[in-house]
Amino acid sequence: MMPRMVRAGAVMVGLLAGAARLSAQTLRVPYTTFTLPNGLQVLLHEDHSVPVVAVNTWYHVGSSDERAGRTGFAHLFEHIMFMGSAHVPTGEFDRLLEAAGADNNGSTTEDRTNYYEDGPANALPLMLYLDSDRLGFLLPEITADKVDIQRGVVQNERRQSYENRPYGLAQENILDRLYPPNHPYHWPVIGSMQDLQAATLEDVRRFFQTYYTPNNATVAIAGDISPRDARALVERYFGDIPRGPAVTRTPPPAVHLTAGVAAVLEDRVQLPRVYDAWHTVKAFADDDAVLDVVANVLAGGRSSRLYRRLVYELQIATDVAAFQDGSRIDGKFEIFATARPGHELAELQRVIDEELEKLAAEGPTAREVERARNTFEAQFLSRMERVGGFGGKADQLNFYNYFVGSPDYFQKDLDRYGRVTAAGVQRAVKTYLTGAHRVVLSVVPQGKPELGVKP
Amino acid sequence: MSPRRRVAAIALAVLASARLAAQVVDRTKPPALTPLPPLKLPTVQTATLPNGLTLAVVEMHKVPVVDVQVLVDAGAARDPGDLPGLATFTALMLEQGAGTRGALAVADEAAFLGAQLNTTATLDGAVASLHVPRRRLEAALDLLADVVLRPSFPDSEVARQRELRGAQLVQQRDEPVAVANIAFPAIVYGPGHPYGHPLNGTDAATAALTRDRVAAFYRSYYRPNAARMLIVGDITLAQARGLLAARFGAWEQGDVPGLAGGSAPAPATRAVYLIDKPGAAQSVIRIGHVGPARSTPDWYALEVLNTILGGAFTSRLNQNLRETHGYTYGAFSQFAARRLAGAFVALASVVTAKTDSSLVEFLKELRRIRDEPVPDPELAKAKAYLTLGLPGDFETTVGTAGRFREVLSYALPLDYYDRYVDRIGAVTAADVQRVARQYIDPDHFDIVVVGDKAHIEAGIRALNEGPIVYRDLWGQEIK
């Protein structure tokens, strides 16, 4: 029984979700949509199989919207959204929901911040009352003391999930080298300790007024609902909240590495680990799904190529992983592997490079591609079971709506994987994952930088 | 102990407004909620194969997927004294070659079918689980039957997994939370109790793992008369019985020895067990002692108690340590559901500089829950949280399987959840205080802290809450 430890999963990698088609069956998530005069977009989906309802709100703001010296602020702000609003004293948000049998949480990525409430179907008015109050009336209730409390919580989240976890600081070291300082993906969602320390009540006010507006949000409501009643409730609770200024963003600079970058990070670990990271493509770009298949062929489970070579046959690594991480502005591909006692990262890196070259030269087998497709298909299908939570149907409607402008994109998303071919996998490996243009980060025991992979 | 839900008559259930249209919103108080319809949960049906294997089937037809769990009475509590980690290793080895397939071919076949196949063991049992699209169920069950009934335990694979586990044990020592989770039971139960050793064994035991020991453990405990199968999803009882009889009907019975109870050491006087992690950014805290078995009739009162104390976000520990003081990202507590006496534990990871202050707040809350009756609104909230959300736990096949797995593993009645709401509803403030006094005993807490000794020791000593005892990364005395 460990409920909501997490209020904010800083990094939500590879949101691969939704529905699925198995053989002739096409799964859909039918929805209706409307937009209030103040700009709030609403998505409604009926699923009466279980008497529960999920309210899922996306604010179109993430860590990529932070300014210099305030990294981590979007996520800190997410925490402050739970600290009460004009008609809901501090602590009541959670207490009222629990007393109605409901759960709630929030999370922040580079691109967006989401919040959900899941609970019995009769709790919908309460959920909308609470969500509308913090959208319309947050600032009167937020004080410097409350910012301080959540600053402490978030700093402890950083300690718990990153600093006190072996290899936990690897990702921010990769981002730092993969993206130039003026790129909005240069820093991690969790932010730096110093920047979290620097955040002020004035920052809260400005951020709220800029980004927490009905016209910068979308609410998805899924489950055992009557669309007519749900719409009336939304109109009732959100209708009087004024529209805010339009959000404008400057286009990010184009990014590419002109040469390989090698870096070493000393950590409180005994076994060194090597990370390779490349720029690839953003979410839903042409090769995004192809690269998911590449990751699966390379390191998806014990039948994958890198697992077989590194962990099973040569027994020089304890683990290996690979993933394509397509975000809204850009994407990256990563591979990491941890050395066994007595083995060096250079050995691991040599094998990783051999396997990449082999895949680029020969392509995958037909069975490997089909296996990956079947794996994705099954994952899509299982996601259809749940309306709430992170990755449930309400969250996915918001995800597709924001990323591709079409909420019921479940089948089309899955179809991308159906179109992946062996030749496509081969081409993607050649295009993105060969050549010197990558970040190679070695995480090594303290005082032993010489264990890092040499450039 | 499971999370959450549903109570029949709680304050919030009142009438709602029928006309919602465009009147001015009253934000001065939360909206009244309509009453919930009567609770309706999925039902479980059972059948028994001629070889004694019990099947429990829950039909859920919304999405064409099926979740299958083979629950075997072969948990780590069965580990022989000289070979801790054997049960989890045996479960792991089931997948490393079975039927006509080698280790990689088993993994390849599962992935090809889009099936998630896992074999693991906890203290109280081993589980082989399968989650698969319905249209590939037959082929996936063929594979599952191979894994459970015909594992080959090749010497080469035993050696390979033994080496891998050895390296993983090295990695585990770098992870402060993993260290705390091993040290706490080692200290609370001691070496003589079936729950006192690490699930994945020790360095020495890992080196001593052999094919013979794995095969002997498998022969002793993997028997249909000591197993149950749970099937949840897009399938009927008749279909399930047919598919499983064909694949598991030939599983041979055997005499499975009973589980030795063991005995926990007499509760020791409160002490702080300090495990040094130089440079740690946080201190990982575990506070507790041996508690009751899952079968205790006090379980309902304990669930309510724990929800008030540390089972939910608004529970006292989290409100105090996180939301009031900001010392941690989360503070919680639990009574572990176990066949033998499970442990009570309160836990958090706290910033190093506030380790002593955090212990003060922990002890304050753990004493207060005994000393003062719980106020009515807090009691009502906890009972509502446990009961009102119950249907949500049965939304997915995996969620439903999890709840019924608890029923099967602890031999609860099959209609357990139908009676759950009433049982939780009957818990009073006096019950909560009684079980708090009976099952939470601050005078005998083992307080385990994994952190940077140089920075936390003086502060802990100044609390004067008991002697400081130094332990190694396994929770053992330092020689």
Poorly predicted residue ranges of chain B: 1-22
Relative strand content of chain A: 15-25%
Order of helix and strand elements from N to C terminus of chain A: EEEEEHHEEHHHHHEHEEHHEEHHHHHE
The fold-level CATH name of the largest domain in chain B is Cytochrome Bc1 Complex, Chain A, domain 1
The succession of helices and strands of chain B, N to C, reads EEEHHEEHHHHHEHEEHHEEHHHHHHEHE
Q: By helix and strand content of chain B, what is the structural category?
A: alpha+beta
Q: Please summarize the sheet with the most strands of chain A.
A: 6 strands, mixed
Nearest-integer average pLDDT of chain B: 93
Q: Note the main sheet of chain B.
A: 6 strands, mixed
Report, as a whole number of angstroms, the end-to-end distance of chain B: 37 Å
State the fourth-level CATH superfamily of the largest domain in chain B.
Answer: Metalloenzyme, LuxS/M16 peptidase-like
The secondary structure category of chain A is alpha+beta
- For the record, give the distance between the C-alpha atoms at the N and C termini of chain A, rounded to a whole number: 47 Å
Cα shape of chain B: globular
Envelope shape of chain A: globular
List how many beta strands of chain A DSSP finds: 13
What's the number of domains of chain B? 2
> What share of residues are in beta strands of chain B?
15-25%
CATH class type of the largest domain in chain B: Alpha Beta
Query: What is the CATH architecture term of the largest domain in chain A?
Result: 2-Layer Sandwich
What is the gyration radius of chain B calculated from CA atoms?
24 Å
